[in-house]
Amino acid sequence: MKKTIYFFILIFLIFATSCKAQNTYKYSSKSEKAIKAYEQATTYYDSYDNENALRELGIAIKADEKFIEAYMMKGDIYADQKKYEMAITNYKKAIEIDPYFFANNYLNLAMIELKTGKYNDAKNDFVAFTKNKNSTPINIKRVEYFIKQCEFCINAVNNPVPFNPVNLGDSINSIYSDYLPSITADEQTLVITRRLPKDENTIDQNNTEEEDFYVSHKLNDSTWSKAIDIGPPINTSGNEGAQCLSPDGKDLYFTACNRSDGIGSCDIYYSKRIGDTWSIPLNMGPVVNSSKWDSQPSVSSDGKTLYFASNRSGSKGGMDIWKSSKNEKGEWTTPVNMGDSINTNNGEMSPFIHPDDQTLYFASTGHMGLGGFDIFYSRKDSNGVWGKPVNIGYPINTFADESYLIVNSFGNIAYFSSDRPGGKGGMDIYSFPLYEKARPKRVTYFKGTVYDKLTKEKLAAKIELIDLKTGTTFIESASDPLNGEFLVCLPTEKDYALNVSKDGYLFYSENFTLTGTHSNSDPFLKNIPLLPIKVGESVVLKNIFFDTDKFELKPESTTELEKLTDLLNKNPKMEIEISGHTDNVGEDKYNQILSENRAKAVYDYLINHGIAKERLSYKGYGVSKPIDTNQTEQGRANNRRTEFKVIETSPK
Hints:
By secondary structure, this protein is of the alpha+beta class.
């Protein structure tokens, strides 16, 4: 987004400071030549002919070096042209000649100083305005906000946060503008937006530009492959931008404008990757998109909530952040405004929801900041309420516009785009270590490939990640039908059950303990072999839990038991034996009885949940069938297990 002069517009509206309105008082000059040139300059200024206006003002000032109005108009013109230092010089000259001539000269000067990061000067000039005898009480009251903003900015500059941005280099950045990064949870795939001429062979400043997506893959810990055009059907001859890559890299949400299937000026589109191929993008439809501007999507790690920016009806300011959620049918629901915690009566944009699903980063001109758009973060509490946004701090934020910040899954590295000096050309992508206070909760991930254990064929399987404490499904996903690959995020400080299933196969279960002293942010990398339903095949039920020396099923076992019940219901001819096993600690007879009682507990659960007892049997094996060494704690833990074995698949 181009730079804005929002505060100038605001202050000009509030205080009516434009020289064009100054026709009710006597000129400060007595020189007829100066007045004639000034009035001619006013005519040019009203016609937006700044060049001739400045020429006439030069004549006026040469005729009378103390012509206050001429300096004021020069200040206005240079402010319009964003030549801020020259604007400051002329406003200061007008004040120097007579500080009481027009009190609002202090406001024009202070707003430009605020806009350009001269916070101490801005505060002094705002204060000078409040003390000026010609200032009105109502305007003095309004200026108090800007004094507080200056104090906030001064404090921020005096207490900088750690910030050491590193350019991602020639593989990612080009001679054109590269911006809006999005990255997968494993940080192996990076997608960026690049703005370049439609015809790269044409050197023409008026040549039409377009936005396209480029993709790069990690080669090692610090090197990226050369970013290449993501190609059709994603990129077209039109503009594609403001994309969001889902944490597993399978889903791409992005913005396209003025398409034939568009609903508003800009709409959000969706595409899915199967193998190495992206599906034809689809407009997300009239439930998500409106007749207005809808853009800058960001999707939660479970794929169930979409955050985006929009100026649709119901927005509190020019742009607000909205969200849409998937219902139980997998349909996107009517978007709702994020409310007063996030949105203001100014502008909010570029939302990024971290994979922890509890930390939202966004840009705003409405919350207290250092000028223009600043980056903020807000955290969601256990009741789903978003907390007061926190300015991410200086020098990440400056007097310029900052936006489009994303954070990796581990929460320690942030990526953003900037046109700072020293870049490759236009805007570039940078990364930097994110300081501790602004970090989200750490998120790790489980990544691998699902395959048939016997044939090695890659499989499309259902993958469920379940909160062991609540039994609720946290993520429901699927492995790729072509290559069997999957990636699911695992926010820390929770314990999870993983279930991988496919019709015609025995399911696979796993658990991840990520709470308390067992918390682990290292990724889990493991390929998942699924066994076809076949007599003699067995499965370890890794999410069946008992207390030490007990055989009462713990509540956390319910999820696994439900999956086993579901498997038996889907395969009504299958018969199984449930077996209990222990380590070698304690007497063999005791372990035998304990293992049998644990197997019976599962047997009883299945019967109580509608499985015919004729299809079930149970047996305790005690220490007789270890699958690991009993010389280590981990080995003994593996030996303490509950299994089921297929006895029959088609009884006579």
